[in-house]
């Protein structure tokens, strides 16, 4: 059963959206090398689905600037309002990624610092969602924890839930939906300690 902290994530990000936006605006795009690896697997101007897009700054903004149309999904209306304000030509959707069914496929799917807020079972259930939205040869990139376990961080003085499956289980889940792992780095010191998965549909 998901903890109360896991169940509180959507409400927490909605209430603290402005705090998150201001905090993220003060950080550099340390994710750029990984975004470039992700892009290298996409066709030019390939459409991207950004799950948990936040305010679109800076990651989606970087991809948009390079000519990729982005469809961003976030459960926080305040985050999506910020996206629409700054990038009105892109598509921004208020939705829970766990229930997503857009009936469209994308060249790239990104779930950076979002997917790992889901409970174990919700993470497992996301893999068919990834597959349903993946065009042939699509790239998928997400962040997780380094090992199986739950962790409670802090956001605005409130508990912030994270969970991770075992790396072997992530590999198995990716294999089940037809993705091969292109790159996997645990606690990348060049990217703020993120544990990153980059995979491609084969």
Automatic annotation (TrEMBL):
Signal sequence range: none
MF annotations from Gene Ontology: methyltransferase activity
Ranges for domain Methyltransferase: 48-137
InterPro entries: Methyltransf_25 (IPR041698), SAM-dependent_MTases_sf (IPR029063)
Superkingdom classification of source: Bacteria
Pfam families: Methyltransf_25
GO biological-process terms attached to the record: methylation
Record's keyword terms, sorted: Methyltransferase, Transferase
Name of the featured protein: Methyltransferase
Organism for this UniProt entry: Bradyrhizobium jicamae
């Amino acid at each position: 059963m998901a903890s109360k902290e896991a169940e509180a994530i959507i409400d927490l990000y909605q209430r603290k959206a402005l705090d998150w936006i201001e905090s993220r605006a003060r950080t550099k795009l340390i994710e750029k090398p990984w975004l470039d690896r992700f892009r290298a697997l996409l066709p030019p101007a390939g459409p991207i689905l950004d799950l948990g897009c936040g305010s679109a700054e800076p990651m989606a903004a970087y991809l948009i600037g390079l000519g990729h149309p982005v469809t961003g999904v976030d459960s926080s209306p305040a985050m999506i309002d910020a996206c629409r304000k700054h990038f009105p030509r892109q598509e921004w959707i208020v939705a829970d990624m766990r229930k997503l069914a857009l009936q469209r496929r994308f060249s790239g799917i990104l779930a950076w610092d979002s997917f790992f807020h889901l409970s174990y079972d919700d993470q497992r259930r996301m893999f068919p969602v990834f597959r349903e939205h993946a065009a042939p040869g699509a790239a998928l990139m997400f962040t997780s924890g380094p090992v199986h376990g739950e962790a409670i961080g802090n956001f605005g003085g409130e508990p912030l839930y994270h969970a991770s499956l075992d790396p072997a289980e992530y590999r198995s889940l990716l294999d089940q939906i037809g993705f091969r792992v292109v790159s996997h780095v645990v606690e990348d010191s060049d990217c703020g300690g993120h544990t990153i998965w980059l995979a491609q549909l084969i």
